[in-house]
Specification:
single chain; alpha+beta; seven-stranded antiparallel beta sheet; five-stranded antiparallel beta sheet; 12 strands; about 35% helix
């Protein structure tokens, strides 16, 4: 029988799969205890019968913990839970059209824009108590030393939701996206064109190219040598790279996007197996070891990656 750690938290939490990271513009000086106190005022509660969504904090380690902040080696782990009511758009559309038709028949005139908006609000209000719910957890960690917050999500919207909740809990959250002087798509295009990467990086075998213009062609290649003549022909046709596969330090592979989001993060076995000698019955010790290892590698990866763009997260600290 598989150990519960392997079934649950170990696979779903500790090894992040997609990253959005942000730099602080002022030093993050909150202690673990201070963060805990502030976040405790905004714990998750399920949606009320007429609420469409609700977000709040839950235990950072799920059933294995009792605090909303879990700190290891100056990395503070947090988890936000969001519940959303699922209302199928076709159902709302059909009911709205029926209600408008009845209104226009009874009043012998077309419904105004304001009336249609009110009809739609009324329909949603009536449907919400019967709607199904979708609950998602989003983990992130803060590392004050590296001046970053790293969010485990492939959705910019979910990352923004997380930051908004943290800002609400702390009262302030001075963070910004990392924006190098030279656009990331230009740098990534240079890499594929032959510009040498740092010693810890190697190009993978996957990329996405866009052509210039709003209606320009999109080309995706997979399992393709990015130094091949076929790829060169795309560059010669003025296509530019918006996503590229990279490997780092013989430990991690990922897809880098032109907004510096990191997708499909994969930690190689040689890295994940470093903590295999820890007693599997000591769940917290195993979680802490994996979290510390993962966060340490991600912190180094982000530092090395931003070096390729001639920028550091500490550059964003206001003087």
């Amino acid at each position: 029988m598989q150990h519960p750690y392997k079934q649950g938290l170990g696979l779903l939490l500790m090894w992040f799969k997609n990253l959005y990271f942000f730099a602080f513009t002022r030093p993050f000086e909150w202690s673990e205890q201070d963060i805990e106190k502030q976040l405790f005022e905004h714990l998750f509660t399920p949606c009320g019968s007429t609420e469409q969504s609700h977000i709040g904090w839950v235990n950072a380690l799920g059933k294995h913990g009792s605090t909303v902040v879990h700190g290891v080696n100056n990395n503070f782990l947090l988890c936000a839970r969001k519940e959303e009511k699922i209302l199928p758009a076709p159902v709302i559309k059909d009911q709205l059209e029926a209600k408008i038709a009845i209104h226009e028949q009874e009043h012998s005139r077309s419904a105004t824009k304001k009336e249609k908006e009110q009809f739609k609000e009324d329909i949603i209000f009536e449907l919400l108590p019967r709607a199904f719910s979708r609950v998602t957890d989003t983990h992130a960690y803060i590392n004050p030393e590296h001046n970053i917050i790293v969010i485990n999500t492939g959705s910019r919207g979910k990352a923004e939701d997380f930051l908004a909740l943290l800002r609400k809990a702390l009262g302030t959250l001075p963070v910004t996206s990392v924006s190098p002087e030279k656009a990331p798509d230009e740098v990534m295009t240079d890499w594929v064109a032959g510009t040498e990467l740092g010693e810890n990086f190697n190009l993978g075998m996957e990329a996405e190219f866009n052509a210039l213009g709003d209606d320009g062609a999109v080309v995706r290649v997979k399992n393709q040598d990015l130094a091949s003549d076929e790829i060169k022909s795309h560059l010669d046709a003025d296509k530019y790279v918006v996503k590229v596969a990279l490997e780092w330090d013989d430990a991690i592979s990922f897809i880098l996007c032109d907004d510096l989001a990191i997708k499909r993060l994969k930690f190689f076995d040689v890295l994940q197996e470093q903590n295999d000698d820890i007693d599997s019955d000591d769940i917290i010790a195993k979680i802490d070891a994996d979290f510390s290892l993962m966060a340490g590698e991600i912190n180094r990866l982000i530092d090395d990656l931003l070096t390729e763009f001639s920028v550091k997260t500490t550059d964003y600290l206001e003087s």
